[in-house]
# Entry
Amino acid sequence: MAPAPEMKFPPENLVNRSLELILANQSPSGAFIASPNFPTYAFCWFRDGSYIAYALDLYNQHDASARFHAWAADVISQRVELIQRALQKAAAGQLLSDADILHTRYTLTGQENTATSWENFQLDGFGTWLWALAEHQRLSQQPLSPAMLASARLVADYLVGLWDHPCYDCWEEFGDQIHPHTLAAIYGGLVAYGQLTTDHRHATTTAIRAFLYQKGLAAGRWQKFLGNHQVDASLLAISTPYRLLSPSDPIMISTVQKIEADLCAGGVKRYLADTYYGGGRWILLAAWLGWYWCEVGQPEKAHQLRQWIEAQADERGWLPEQVPLGLNNDSMFAPWVQRWGPVATPLLWSHAEYLILTKMLPEPR
Ligand code: BGC
# Structure
């Protein structure tokens, strides 16, 4: 057995510290800053925020989660014309500009950040939001407000109209490609929305499934993007949580075997060619893989990943976005530090995934 890793922060306190950090960094608007100490991440992402809200719901922090969802619903409701324009242009086969699409991240008061250019066109976060909203209702047992439902409907319409457009992936890269992870997030979001409202979008969910089975596989595994046969750790989400297929489906098993072989060594890398901060090991992906292991009845593996995460917390109990160990490309670490500063720490999404993993493990903390 491997020796227990050294801990800088008492692991038994990391759940509470994670909850404290998340709640302390919720803006009065309800938005969650992605990281309070990393200027480039001083925004609220639909993707990060939705997982953070889900983690809060798992720990009965329903009010804070509801405040996030109200913020998100408000961002959407102020963009009805934009959504209609996007849908009309897409239906007419016209090119969508940055001004025609929902951005992936907003200022904490819900504005687009136009000061710097960004990979704004990402669809996965909106599917994730619908999924997290349905989970919020399920876990809180509270009905959603009419405003939330109205915005959910707008998002469902938006996704139905745009799902087959190439867009940036959940790592904000490869904007001219189609990503199975993104399509699964849209699928999971639309299915959740249908269960929530009975406003089913069967034609689109059926089309997404058929498309993915036809084009998204290579050698019996999900591909990073169409035509790129590498795996990406975000493919885990296709089953966990978006349930395009079950976690024990042979396609998921084979995909996860490859993720484990290529990307997992303590923590989990995003993909082999990743050079962001050199391409290190991500906390949130280690937790995600652990979440998957819990779902397929392998809690020992999940436990090891949790232990690895706990050993990465600093003296304050802060978790970074990634740990610069076993980098894919050593020479790419310093240039990113020079450009944006040290790795984002704490990253709220890392803490949220740690909370999710800990909740899924049979052995409580
Ligand atoms: C990650 C995104 C994330 C954002 C904010 C980016 O570097 O690739 O997945 O949403 O940071 O945390």
About this structure: DSSP finds 13 helices and eight strands in the chain. The pocket of beta-D-glucopyranose is lined by residues 34, 41, 45, 47-48, 170-172, 347, 349 (CB under 6 Å). The chain has a mean pLDDT of 97. Residues 62 and 140 are 6 Å apart (CA to CA).
